[in-house]
Amino acid sequence: MLNIDSLEKGIVIDHIHAGSGMRIYSLLGLDTLDCSVAIIKNAKSSKYGKKDIIKIEGKTDLNLDILGVMDHNITINIIDMGRIVEKRSLELPKQVTNVIRCKNPRCISNAEEGVDHIFRLCNEELQQYRCIYCEQEFQK
Ligand SMILES: [Zn+2]
Question: DSSP H helical segments within the chain, as ranges?
Answer without folding.
Answer: 21-27, 66-70, 108-111
